[in-house]
Amino acid sequence: MTERELDAAGVTDPALREAYRHCRRLNARHGRTYFLATRLLPVERRPAVHALYGFARWADDIVDALGTGPDTARRDAELAALERELEKGLRDGESAEPVVRALADTARRYRIDHAHFADFMTSMRSDLVVTDYADYAALRRYMHGSAAVIGLQMLPVLGTVTDRETAAPHAAALGVAFQLTNFLRDVGEDLDRGRVYLPADLLAAHGVDRERLRWSRDTGRRDPRITSALRAFERLTRGVYRQAAPGLAMLEPVSRPCIRTAFVLYGGILDAVAEDGYAVLHRRAVVPRRRRAVVAADGLVRVASARLRAGSAAARRPDGVPPTGAEPVEPRMVEEVA
What we know:
This protein has 16 helices and no strands. By secondary structure, the chain is an all-alpha fold. α4 runs parallel beside α7, α9 runs antiparallel to α13 and α14 packs antiparallel against α15. The two termini are 19 Å apart.
């Protein structure tokens, strides 16, 4: 699969091919839901997605993997080194770091605004020192760089049937919706890292604070006030999904099945949290395997339909040029997504 993706994308340099393979491995290891949804994209666009998400995953690992407290200076130094390498890679197109090299190549090919990467690094640095957020407005400022810009980076790769400026707010909202979903699912794990992403004013409105969350995490006991706060955060998150939804139809038809599958699967995490009684301080909610398989199967049907329509359009063209990504649909992806 990897070699076919790189061949289709026109990546021929051996070192650059290995850089993209490295990003793909990062994506496969850390982002199972979105990695598998990416399999529904036209084959030549997948390496770019792996580069974008591989870089984001790598930076996020620097922030999270070393814990909190005394390691802050070390993490800050590593992020600063990564940022210097990123600036050099985007400027020169070369880097000794495989992830940066693949990212720089993707940014060049798709003319992605470099400001999106700078904003992302700003939010990564803030994670070293900011451990909670007073209100949703403060959280949204953080998420502009940590999530919204991911959607904006992806937009040139996915392509649009409208002008990009019209689709951009919806793409940004989808990035935010995905991250809010992760925040809800990972409340307990984030708390162990010393962070609370649920806005303090939302928690306070339900009689909850960091100490109450810590008590529940440590004792394994439930509190109806916490459940109420988590339910309110879920409602807030679903509202952002509604803001993002109109953007699906603005994408190129061959890209829609991938993003729709991710949209449904991530939304399914919210369903799983609710069905599990908002027990996210004690265990991670998981979308049932059968539900994932149904969504994957629907995605495959949509891929086949989009390619059939694109193929019919190409057949009517005088030059008979085939559609991009015209490859066999792989039924085994249903099992892989599940």
